Structures are given as C-alpha cells and as structure tokens.
Amino acid sequence: MTPLFDLAVIGSGVVGCAVFRESVLAGLDTLMIERAPDLLAGASKANSAILHTGFDSKPGSLEQRLIRAGHREYLAIHERLGLPLLKTGATLVAWNDQDLAQLDGIDAAARQNGVSLHRLDAEGVRRREPSLAPTACGGLVVDEESLIDPWSAPLAYAQQAVVNGGVFLRNSPVASGTYEDGAWTLRLEDRGEGEKTVRARVVVNCAGLQGDIVEAIARSSPFTIKPRKGQFIVYDKSAYGLISSVILPVPSPVTKGIVATRTVFGNLLVGPTAEPQDDRDVAALGRPQLESLKAAGERLLPSLARHDITATYAGLRPATEFSDYQIEALPDRGWITVGGIRSTGLSSALGIARHVRGLYEESFGRCRPLADPLWPRVPNLTEEFPRPGFQPDRDDIICHCESVTRAEIRAALSDSPLPAGCIGGLRRRTRCMMGRCQGFYCTRRVVELAAPYLPELATLGPGGAA
Amino acid sequence: MNHDVIIIGGGPAGLSAARHLLASGVRDVVVIERNPECGGLPRFCLHRGWGALDFGRLWRGPRYARALVEAAAGATFLTNCAVTALEPDGVVRVNTPGGPRTLRARAVLLATGIREMPRSARLIGGTRPWGVMNTGAFQEMVRFQTLPFRAPVIIGSELVAFSALETARHAGLRPVALLEENSSLSVPAIVGAAARLRYQVPVRTGCRLVEICGQDRVEAIIVEDNGARRRLRCDSIVLSGRFVPETALVDGRTILRDLDGTRGPVIDNFYRCTDPRIFAAGNVLRGVEHSGYVAHEGRSAAAAILRALRDDLPPSRPAIAVEGRNLRYVYPQRIVPSDGKTMLFGRSARGAGGDLVARDASGRELARRSVGRFAWPRLTLEIPTPDVETCDALILEREHSGQ
Ligand SMILES: Cc1cc2nc3c(=O)[nH]c(=O)nc-3n(C[C@H](O)[C@H](O)[C@H](O)COP(=O)(O)OP(=O)(O)OC[C@H]3O[C@@H](n4cnc5c(N)ncnc54)[C@H](O)[C@@H]3O)c2cc1C
Ligand SMILES: Cc1cc2nc3c(=O)[nH]c(=O)nc-3n(C[C@H](O)[C@H](O)[C@H](O)COP(=O)(O)OP(=O)(O)OC[C@H]3O[C@@H](n4cnc5c(N)ncnc54)[C@H](O)[C@@H]3O)c2cc1C
C-alpha cells in the first residue's frame, strides 16, 4: 500500500511552495506533486518581482487581505531564510489631468486598505525621480512597496518544507483521482514507467494556470482560467540607477499597467504587457509588443534608449472570470481549492498559505506545529549581500557577468535539498547565463558542469538528427 | 604597490601591447585576465588564418593565442582575476581567487574585447528554448566537443557568420541556412556566393527571423522571407555579429562611454580615455575588427603609453570634440593638439561611393578623400592635427555621391 499523506499539494508555483511549507511546519505529513522537472514551471517563473502592499487592491477583498498578510509574513521570515528585501518604495505617477483627477480616489482606497500614501506635486516627482520624462505632473508615494527575488523565495519555502520532512515529487503530472473512505488516490500520468499513484487525506489544488483542469478532478470547476500574458524587458545594470523606486502608472480597471522597477539583481525592468490568450503553457515573446514596450519605457525614462537590453521574457497570469482569488475548502471532498491567483501571488503566497492552514483546521482537523523546525538559507544572489564570487578562496568564476562560481553551480546541481531539474532552474538558482552577455562567454563551461546532472543539455534532442 | 602598466584583458590587443611594452624596456607589466588562461577569443576558433599580420603565419586560433602569450613573456599574468572597477589615479579593483584586491599603475590599458548581441536585444519573438546562442558560444562548444546540436540556422552575414559556417563544417554539422535580414549581405556578394558553394548552405537575404519555436529545444523558426512568412525546421540558432564592446568597466564615472556612436570608451588621438591614466585598444573600442588589426592597435596604444610613462604625451585637456555625420560612429571622439597628423576612423551607415570630409565647426575643410564603392565598412581619413585655438569642434562627414 502506498503511504497515506495528510496533505498533498498539486503544483509548485510560488503559491504551492508556500502552502507546502506551511503544511510541513504545521506538522502535517505533506507531499508536493509537480508535473515539471523543477519548481516554478508555470506563472511563477516570470513576474515583476514586487512585494506589493495591496494599497490598490479592492478594499475588503480576499486578495487584499492575503497580500497584507503575505507581505507581513515575508518581512517576518525573510532574514532567517536568507531572502533579500529591497525597500525601494513606489511612486505612482500621474502623466496628465485625467491621471491627476484619480489620485484622491487611489489615496482614499489605500487608506481603507490600511496603507498610507503621500502626495507629490510635479516638482516633488522630479526631485524624487529626476530621470522621469518631464511631463510627469504629480504622484503618490507608497513607502512599503518592495522588491524581492522571485525565484529564491519559493525555492526557500519549498526547501524549508523538504528539510523538515516534506516530500517533493517532480515529473509527476496528476492525471486523475478518486476520493474514497476519506482519502484521495491520485493517478500520475504514465511516463513509460508504469502508472503511479499517491494517496493523501486532503488535496490542495495549487495548479495555477492548470487550476481549472486540476479542479475538475474534484468537481466541475467553478472558474475558468483565462491566461493573460505579460512581456518584460530587462535593461543592463548601467540603467539600475535611473530610478530609485518602483514607477507605477495610474491603474486601469484591467491592469496595473506598465511598470519600471529595479530588480534585486541590479538591473532595471520594464513591463508587463497584458495580453489575453488561450494557450496556458506557452508564453511567447512578440516583436511588435516588445517594440512598443521599449517605446513605452523610453517615454517614461527617455535616457533608457541609450542603455543595452539584457533580457526579454514573458509570463502568464492565471486570471479567471472573477477578479478575486478563488479559495475554498470542500470539507466532504477532502479538497482545498486555491485558484485564480492572477497577478499578486508572489506577494500573497505566505498569506494564502496561512489562510489555507486555517481552512484545513476548520474542516479537517488539528495541526501539530513543529516545535523547532530547521531554517535552511538559500544562496544569496543579490548585490545587497556578499556573494561567494567575491570571497577569499573563492572557486573559479564561470559566469563573469554575474560572478557565479563553479562551486555555486555545483551546489545548485547536486548539493542542495532541491537541486535544479532543468537549465532554467539552474539559471534561477545561480544567475549563470542571466547577465549582460546572456551566455556568450559561459555557455560551454556551464554545460560541462551541468551535463552529468542534466544530460539533455549535452545530448541531441528528439528532432536533432534532422 | 604601484606598477608601471596594468593591462586589463589578455586577448590579442592586450597581449600585443604587453609584448611591445616589454620589448621597449618597460619592466613591470601586469596582464589581468578573468579566464583561467590568456589568449582571448582566438582560443576557440579552430579555423586557420590567425597571425598573418603580426607573426607572418597562418595559424589556427588556439596556436595564435599561445604565440601571443609566449611573445608577452616577462609580464606578470594574473589569470582567474576579474577587474571589477576602474578608478582615478590608476586604481584598479580586482576580484582575485584570494578575494578582492586593489592594484595601481602609472598607466592602465583597457582591452576587454567584444561580444555579439544576444537574442534579447534583437527583440526576437517566440519561445526561449535551449539552443539559441551566439557564434562565440557555438565555436567554444565545438572546440570542446560539447555541442548537442545538428542543424543550426545562422543569423546574420557579417564575416563572423561565415566563420560560423566554417566551424559547423569542422564539427560535421549541416547548417539549415544562413539568413540576412537586409537586402544585401554585410560582406561583398562574392563571399556569399563562395560560401554557398563551399558549404552547400542556402544563403538568403531579405529574410528576417521573427519567431523561435519549441518548448524545451529549438524546433523551428518563423522567418519573414521577402515579405512572406515561412517556417524553417532547425534544432539550434546561431545569432552572429552585431557586436557590442565589453564595456562593463566603462560606467561613465571614471571614464566616459560613447553611447551614441561606438558604444566603447571615448578616446583621444593617443588611445587615451577621459581619465588620462587609462588607455583603451582592441575591439572594446568599437564593433569588430580582425585580430591582426587589433594587434596593431595594441602596439599603437603601447607606443602612446610609453610616451605617457616618460611624461611626453600632450595634456589630455583641452580637447576638440569630434562628431560624425552620415556615419554610424567616429573615433577618436576627442583630439588633443599635438605635432603631426591624426587618423580619424569611422564606419558607414550605408555603403557605396562618395567622399569622406573633415571640417571644423566653421565649415572649413581640413581634408577630403573619395571612398571606393566597395570600401570595407571601416573608413579612415588622415588630417593635420588641428589646433584648439582655431578649431573648437571637428566634423567628419560621409558625403554620398548624388546628394
Ligand atoms: C507578468 C506577470 C507579472 C507579475 N508580477 C507580480 C508581482 O510583481 N508581484 C506579485 O506578487 N505577483 C506578480 N505576478 C503574479 C504571480 O506571478 C502569480 O500570482 C503567481 O505566480 C501564481 O502562482 P501559482 O502558484 O498560483 O501558479 P503557477 O506558478 O502557475 O504554479 C502552478 C504549478 O502547478 C503545476 N501543475 C499544473 N498542473 C499540474 C498537474 N496536473 N500535476 C502536477 N503539477 C501541475 C505547474 O507545472 C506549476 O508549476 C505576476 C504575474 C505575471 C504573469
Ligand atoms: C565569435 C567571434 C569570432 C571571431 N572570429 C574572428 C576571426 O576568425 N578572425 C579574426 O581575426 N577575428 C575574429 N574575431 C574578432 C576578435 O574580436 C578579434 O580577433 C580579437 O579577439 C579581439 O581582440 P581583443 O584583445 O580586443 O579582445 P578579446 O580577444 O575578446 O580579449 C579580451 C579579453 O579580455 C578579458 N576580459 C574582459 N573583461 C575583463 C575583466 N573585467 N577583467 C579581466 N579580463 C577581462 C576577456 O576574458 C578576454 O580574454 C571574432 C570575434 C568573435 C566575437
């Protein structure tokens, strides 16, 4: 008989990772099931990396409450996990009279959300952000908006779960399930090794972009995922100093609009676009959108035109027909739904996890919190703290643009509670190939180091013999 | 400790400068190289032709790299050391295997080379699978036999694209095509024709890569082939050319960068940057030149450094600003008064005939010459070095015939 877990989480996006951690720390026997070779295969691999305050969320919404809770919890635990926090604050900028007219309303809503803003006139905006286009005519300052590392955070959550006894199953798409005698039997897609099943008393659906498909295992899904793509341009480190805070536009009802922000890695980021699409798996870049994004960035910050582009990427928001999160427990089905965490999940994940724990306790029973859990730290990837590449007796540097050493790459591949499962995972864990040369100088050496662990990098692909 | 000269970058430019400085009697030359070995880009280029101008040989790249290192024997080589910042007064911050260190020298030569523009800056659409790389990475993987691809498509038609074809042949690969988005090749048409014959590879102009397909690996590309969209199967993409100087150290604080022109450091007619102790040579100055030319530049910069060490260089201020018209860039970007002549270098925004003219701000012509129809994109014009008293700005203009 396969072991019976107290709880199984489906999906290791940032939300699933936070739920996984909370559940393990709550003393539950927990299993994480991820279909991909590594965590962060869906929405969570590409976002703006802002730890929001929720100042602009709908007052009284679940989303607003959980962003606040998630933000607070992040502040409380980030140091113990080795996670960065760059308190840049944000400047919401009005570019015309229409924008200006909306500032009072935004300010009032923020106050209802428990976030106090302060007002800037045109001169105040100029003084705070002198590189902005001179047409900026006023704005609001949000002090607590901050920047974090969007990949190390979920990794740290999942890693803490694993070292405290959680089980992480990769390459395991959940295909179907049955609920009998108070337990779920989940069938994992057959990948040529015969059918596998896992069992758990309670299942939490954190499948993000596949949320409604996975939901159909338990019931006809009350929501439909409507993916919304966001494309980004990352500028060279030379552009980092152009702004000091997150530059937000006055939001429209559908999107937060195009933002310019620093990253904790020392770059400057412009994006995202908001493009509805049907495909849930592929976030393709588009030249026309990138061109208009570039133009939009240069309208905000005219001198951006003189800086090099380091990277372009795109992510998909798991939006639904509803504006709020879709979180609910089904007490008689052993199921908790966590769906539609569309554009604020990085900020709210820890809050969602707390909320899910509450739902679990209400519907399924008491937890037995671990008395003295381990707090494994993730490697630091930011320039805020010392990096291994600058320490005495450092190993050889393999990636020069980001000063990544051989030892860091080796550790991410093998010597870690959750080693990298694909080249993207290796890049996210170490920043190799993510700098200004994008692999011009380091690809070969990275491949040599990685091939023993990720053989597909060094062998011909399926279509390779064409 | 104060060294005579610190050279940053152990490629053809830096090593040729070291060779010349040592031969001229400078004792204390330090070459700082971030890789485990010196030699620069040639280390990974297996085709022949290296060393023709500076060693009178036609070596493969790795042999040439070795010869450059041997010729610079006597220098102190700090390999595995990356320079992280340049500061005034010859201060150089270095990340060594033993931790960060600060070195100082009477003169510093920046010779950090170039790389090719990545996929991102080209704003190419589509997915981001494994198998999209620059020629540099492609050649290095072939050199070390770690290349897991069979059927690359080569993008671009600068010389380096043809070097990629040669590399592919060496590795026994059959490139799917070589695609140039402009209506003509960046090299003379004869090179394209020869490549078609030699490599049996379709060479297409007016054909632009718009989208990359494939989730984990490259499976195909979508191109706009003279207006029509087509899908082309391939398992990898080599993005060649569109060179970018490696200017991480040229951050606008200690020395200025020519952001609207070369995108390399601003230099004067003595290869001197805007800080008078810092010099620059080689491909860090601008988009690509071949190794022989770069080696020659290394020697010229070394000659200027020798004069600086003897306090024999004209002061770096005041200087005349040089501006280009109808040119992608021009350098030196500043001219300091001195005896003799000054060579101006430019690169054309478009090809074909016409004249290259230097004028001062008042419009007075200082020099003119006609440019051949098949001129190499590099344009040069020698002028009598102007005097700051009578000339406060200099304009190098490409006059197209029939204009
Ligand atoms: C452009 C953009 C910008 C954003 N900016 C920010 C920001 O600045 N701040 C912020 O807080 N938030 C931001 N977000 C939102 C945030 O990224 C999302 O809310 C969050 O990533 C949602 O995570 P998730 O865990 O719910 O889903 P996902 O990340 O999609 O995770 C779902 C996981 O489930 C797995 N899975 C799916 N089906 C199965 C199955 N059958 N079996 C096993 N596993 C399965 C998937 O492989 C995936 O790993 C942004 C989002 C986008 C797209
Ligand atoms: C893909 C490719 C193919 C080419 N093929 C040819 C060819 O076939 N024939 C030809 O003649 N030319 C070729 N070239 C041109 C080539 O740039 C020159 O031949 C020559 O290598 C330029 O010499 P360099 O010294 O300026 O730069 P490089 O050879 O690039 O040397 C620069 C050195 O500086 C080091 N460096 C950089 N930054 C730092 C730092 N911060 N600290 C310490 N060290 C640093 C680098 O590691 C490198 O070793 C090619 C170029 C490319 C990109």
UniProtKB/TrEMBL annotation, chain A:
<dbReference type="InterPro" id="IPR006076">
    <property type="entry name" value="FAD-dep_OxRdtase"/>
</dbReference>
<keyword id="KW-0560">Oxidoreductase</keyword>
<dbReference type="InterPro" id="IPR036188">
    <property type="entry name" value="FAD/NAD-bd_sf"/>
</dbReference>
<feature type="domain" description="FAD dependent oxidoreductase">
    <location>
        <begin position="6"/>
        <end position="356"/>
    </location>
</feature>
<protein>
    <submittedName>
        <fullName>NAD(P)/FAD-dependent oxidoreductase</fullName>
    </submittedName>
</protein>
<dbReference type="GO" id="GO:0016491">
    <property type="term" value="F:oxidoreductase activity"/>
</dbReference>
<dbReference type="Pfam" id="PF01266">
    <property type="entry name" value="DAO"/>
</dbReference>
<dbReference type="InterPro" id="IPR041854">
    <property type="entry name" value="BFD-like_2Fe2S-bd_dom_sf"/>
</dbReference>
<dbReference type="InterPro" id="IPR052745">
    <property type="entry name" value="G3P_Oxidase/Oxidoreductase"/>
</dbReference>
From TrEMBL, chain B:
<dbReference type="InterPro" id="IPR023753">
    <property type="entry name" value="FAD/NAD-binding_dom"/>
</dbReference>
<dbReference type="InterPro" id="IPR051691">
    <property type="entry name" value="Metab_Enz_Cyan_OpOx_G3PDH"/>
</dbReference>
<dbReference type="InterPro" id="IPR036188">
    <property type="entry name" value="FAD/NAD-bd_sf"/>
</dbReference>
<dbReference type="Pfam" id="PF07992">
    <property type="entry name" value="Pyr_redox_2"/>
</dbReference>
<keyword id="KW-0560">Oxidoreductase</keyword>
<dbReference type="GO" id="GO:0016491">
    <property type="term" value="F:oxidoreductase activity"/>
</dbReference>
<feature type="domain" description="FAD/NAD(P)-binding">
    <location>
        <begin position="3"/>
        <end position="289"/>
    </location>
</feature>
<protein>
    <submittedName>
        <fullName>FAD-dependent oxidoreductase</fullName>
    </submittedName>
</protein>
